[in-house]
Structure formats: structure tokens, C-alpha cells
Amino acid sequence: MKNRINLINLLVLLFGSLVLPSLSYAQSGGGAMSFGGLVPLFLIFVFFYLFLIRPQQKKAKEHQKLLNALKKDDKVITAGGVYGTVSSVKENVIDLKITDGVCIQVTRQSIAAVINKEAQNTSARVPEVVKK
């Protein structure tokens, strides 16, 4: 009986010292990344594209359309916060009339927004409450 327990202990010791380390080396060996390791990187890229890159590109395209559609007598706001009326549009330079007798030149890219007359009128309206 005692010989049998010693034999089992010897076999466990041999198995533990010879077979188990070779299995662990076989699993951790290789530097190749599996497909499962690439999935989180792909998901991070998709997240950044959908929520950061794409909306920024859309906003830049809309701003470029706005700049290309500028014409004389448009009311605009510059990036510095100056309100004015476009008096002439050249290639990259826009003449803004701020008040009577005051005209400044700004670059086309410094125009932040165009003020629409409809937008001014609709934002000032207060909705009526309908009573039954």
C-alpha cells in the first residue's frame, strides 16, 4: 500500500515536472496575434470613425458649401465674432461692411456662419399654447 502511494506520488511529480511545463510553453510560445486579438482594435476604429471622424467630415463639407455659396449682401458672423454684411467676394478675400463707412477685409475661411432672415424671425417666435 505504501509502495503504491509512493508510485502515485512519483507519477504525479513526473507528470507535473515534465508534461505541464511543456504544455504551458506551447501555449505562450508564438508572437502571432490571432483574429480574436484584432477584434477590439477593429471595434475601437469603427467607434472613432462613426462618432468622431465622420461627423467632423460632414461639418467641414457643410462649412465649405456655406463658404462657396457666399454672395453680396449676405449677413455673416466671423470666427472672431464680428457681424457684417458682405460687400464683395473675391477669390480668398471677402470685404465686410460692419457699419456705414467701415469696411474690413477677411479671409474666406474666417467666416463662421451666415445669418438668414428666416432663422432670425422663427427663433424669436414663442409657440402658442392651445387650450381645449
Can you tell me about this structure?
The protein is α+β, with helices and mostly antiparallel strands and 132 residues long. Among the domains are: 34 residues; 55 residues, Roll (SH3 type barrels), CATH 2.30.30.60. It contains three helices and five strands. A five-stranded antiparallel beta sheet has the order 4-3-2-1-5. About 5% of the residues have low confidence.
Sum up the structure in keywords.
132 residues; alpha+beta; SH3 type barrels; five-stranded antiparallel β-sheet; 3 helices; 5 strands; rod-shaped
The string of secondary-structure elements, in order, is: HHEEEEEH
Strand arrangement in the largest pleated sheet: 4-3-2-1-5
Secondary structural class? alpha+beta
Shape: rod-shaped
- Give the name of the CATH architecture of the domain at 71-125: Roll
Biggest sheet statistics:
5 strands, antiparallel
The share of residues in extended strands comes to 15-25%
Output the CATH class name of the domain at 71-125: Mainly Beta
**Could you tell me how far the N terminus lies from the C terminus, measured between alpha carbons in angstroms?**
97 Å
Which whole number gives the mean pLDDT?
78
Say how many strands there are: 5
Please mark out the parts with pLDDT under 50 across 5 or more consecutive residues, or reply none. Answer: 122-127
Gyration radius from CA atoms, angstroms? 36 Å
| Total DSSP helices | 3
CATH topology of the domain at 71-125: SH3 type barrels
Helix content: 40-55%
